[in-house]
Amino acid sequence: MPTRKKREPTRPPEFDAQRFLHSTGAAARITYERSAVLFSQGDPAASVIYIQQGSVKLSVVSETGKEAVVAVLMPGDFFGEGCLAGQPLRMSTATAVTPTTVLIVDKRTMLEMLHRQAAFSDRFIAHMVARNIRIEEDLVDQLFNSSEKRLARTLLLLARYGKHGTPQPVLPKVSQEVLAEMVGTTRSRVNFFMNKFRKLGFIEYNGGITINASLLSLVLHD
Length: 222
Known about the structure:
Blueprint: H1 17-24, E1 28-32, E2 37-39, E3 47-53, E4 56-61, E5 67-73, E6 78-79, E7 93-96, E8 100-106, H2 107-116, H3 118-144, H4 147-158, H5 176-183, H6 187-199, E9 203-205, E10 209-211, H7 216-220
Antiparallel strand pairs: 1-8, 2-7, 3-6, 3-8, 4-5, 4-7, 9-10
């Protein structure tokens, strides 16, 4: 008598936060042109934002006027979540790096969805944990790695290497000035390393910047 093959248990599909936000009608969908400001440092913190398309940089300005880029966010990222913890004002300025479409959910609605929708709450908590891990890795990177290795890691993060799903090796248009601010070095150093990476075959220029997986070897090399 032929034996039946044991069926492997099927994994439930990953929760689609974007589809959920669309289906509930709770989010306002807005498109911003490149360089448009979504909110400024010191504005009232009253909503959470989800990126559908494009990219957004978060920057802070010190009392002396010095600006620093603290993050560049991509599709699938939430930001502005400080309002959920009672943060009254925005601690950074959010600017569209490329043409960007976002979903904006006001604080009250977001809290209600987190309480009532377990799958959405799980997805949001996973995002927060991943963000905290990223902040710790960024701190270690700044303390112990050279500017060359920091630039390589930044390029890989922008290309979504190490994230769930398929990497997107063609980067959005991010200027060398923004890369320098993210890495914590000068534009001339970024230009020098980008030319070096191109000569070594780590990156390519074809109207945009294509990141090759071989760049990982620089980050992993001690």
